[in-house]
Amino acid sequence: TARGDLVNDEDMIAALKSGRLGYAGLDVFAGEPKIHEGYYDLPNTFLFPHLGSAAVEARNQMGFEALDNIDAFFAGRDMPFKLA
User: Which 3-state string (H, E, C) describes the chain?
Assistant: First the structure.
């Protein structure tokens, strides 16, 4: 499991072609929105749009967390939701 730039596309494509890696399901890519073209013809690779947070509930929660941060900032408090 890795995200975007942590994946070496050339190595992963070689591993998928050789069978050292059986399958890959990818939704975060280095250099998005440009995707390494080596993935396109691999029958054991599934490419998905980056939709991990696309559920209405997730987007609403993200909005509420942003509002809580804004409220805390203007009240002089530590923001409860910070980027890792």
Answer: CCCHHHCCHHHHHHHHHHCCCCCEEECCCCCCCCCCHHHCCCCCEEECCCCCCCCHHHHHHHHHHHHHHHHHHHCCCCCCCCCC
For the chain, how many structural domains are there in total?
Answer: 2
Whether 50 is a known active-site residue: answer yes
Point out the catalytic residue in the list 10, 20, 32, 77: 32
The pTM of the full predicted model, rounded to 2 decimals, is 0.61
> Catalytic pick from 3, 20, 59, 77?
3
Of 10, 20, 37, 50, which is the active-site residue? 50
pLDDT per residue as tens digits for the range 8-36: 999 999 999 999 999 999 888 888 878 89
Residue 70 structural domain: 53-84
**Based on the domain organization, do 39 and 12 belong to the same domain?**
yes
